[in-house]
Amino acid sequence: MNKNTSLDKAQRILQQLRDNFLDELPERCDAIEEGILALAEDREGEHFQRLFREVHSLKGSAGTHGIVAISTICHQLEDGLTTAQATAPHAPERIDLYLRYLDLIHRCIEIARDKRGNYAEIDQALEDIRRHSSPHQLSGLIVENSPAMIALYQGALADQPVQLAVEQDGMVALNRLLHERFDLLIMGAETRTLNGIGVLYALRAANGINRHIEVILVSSSQRQNFAKALAPDVLVPRGPEMIPRLATAVSGIVRRARSGGRRP
User: Fold this and answer.
1) Which of 9, 75, 203, 212 lies at a 20 to 30 A Cα distance from 263?
2) What are the pLDDT digits (tens) for 92-107?
3) Which range is least confidently modeled, 2-11, 31-40, 142-151, 197-206?
């Protein structure tokens, strides 16, 4: 068997696996819908845990089969679920929001079966949902390996009008940054798979939707050598002044965003 024949066979197998995934998706969506609707009566958190596992599993499967749009939808749905679970009941308007994400997954199935596969409408719909659901909040991403540091960041920024998502893996974070719009990025220098500086360089070089995002890099070193075009906007050294400096930096980003003075 020559090399081209082996490659063709592998591609056919991958395509069949992808087709099987798409065939099974409506049933998986039905399970997610049942979980969403059950949240209204979820007193013990069992429905939430089951739903979160379903969404998390779908996110991974979609990524495996190269359907990034579905992974992105699942990311945002996970963020919405965890935020509501931690801060407020899953009110009817939140249930409606989750169902809107589910509608987008159904639309992705249609797009995925189209060989052209143009997901631009999904990106725009996700942006519309984010702006509509949190009209007075910015969207931020924390990329940090340490749970203790994550808790410090979240506590320091609890009073800021910023909805924070969290990733501990640099490659996962970079994938989100290439496909989801954020207003600010708070990043530790050491993260799993790809370190913070690697994420920053890749993000700036990618010329994507977040190329000009305002970046706060938290580092144990007070000095870092960066190429000018790739440097973070703010370097916050770890230490006694870390939390007030971080809060001040985020306050400045919020103030500029509200006055229309965000980086272009």
Assistant:
1) 75
2) 888 999 999 999 999 9
3) 2-11
Query: Based on the structure, what is the number of domains in the chain?
Result: 2
pLDDT 10s digits, 155-187: 999 889 998 899 999 999 999 999 888 999 999
Q: For 209-233, what is the HEC assignment?
A: CCCCCEEEEEECCCCCCCCHHHCCC
Do residues 128 and 141 share a domain?
A: no
Same domain, 21 and 93: yes
> Which phi and psi angles does 187 have, rounded to 5°?
-140, 135
Q: Find out whether 48 and 85 touch, Cβ atoms under 8 Å.
A: yes
Give the pTM: 0.72
Residue 21, C-beta contacts closer than 8 angstroms, at least 6 positions apart: 61, 62, 65, 67
In this structure, the answer to whether residues 149 and 81 fall within a common structural domain is no
Q: Which domain holds residue 42?
A: 1-133
